[in-house]
Every structure is written in structure tokens, then in C-alpha cells.
Amino acid sequence: VQLQASGGGLVQAGGSLGLSCAASGRTSSSYVMAWFRQTPGKERELVASITTGGVPNYADSGKGRFTISRNNGRKMIYLQMNNLKPDDTAVYYCNSITGHWPWGKGTLVTVSS
Prior knowledge:
The chain is mostly beta strands. It is built from no helices and 10 strands. The relative contact order is 0.34.
């Protein structure tokens, strides 16, 4: 299974970005999927997760600003991020909530103040 995240970029504080994650290979829609992020020198942290039935859960950092969604048929996971803050700057990754598959390269989100 390969996970490819995309949609990152440079945005000013208060702006929005929409991330996408495409899963290829022998995946299953029965996994709880999640977005994670990592900054240099820090451990990867969970940002948001979504159950197979579409029930989301968010870390405190993203509550009220981020929206996670999924399309099981297309093997896609999405993260809409609004009202971005400089602290959101990180490389964003998708995976199962347990990190079941190899981590892809992620997509870099840079939020300028």
C-alpha cells in the first residue's frame, strides 16, 4: 500500500488549505484513517481521525478549524484546514490511526504570520 498526500503549500495565517491523500494497492475501507503532522525535532502527532462510517475525531489543535472526510470507494482521505495558524506549519501525513502502512513523503504546509 502506498499513501500519497498532496495539497500542501504556503498560506498566510487565517487562510485555508485542503489536503488529499490517495491510497493505492491492497487497502481496505475497514481501517480508521487519520491525518498526522510532524515538525523537525518533534514526534509525529495525530491531527484528526475518521472511522469507516465517517465519524470524525479531532485533536484539540484542530477542533473547530479542521474537517476530515473520506471517500472509501475512491480510497481517498481529505483534510480541510481553515483559519490556519503558524503553529500548523508541518509536514502532514495520512495513514491508518495505528500507522499500519509505510509512511509516505507527506505534504508540507507552511503558514506565514
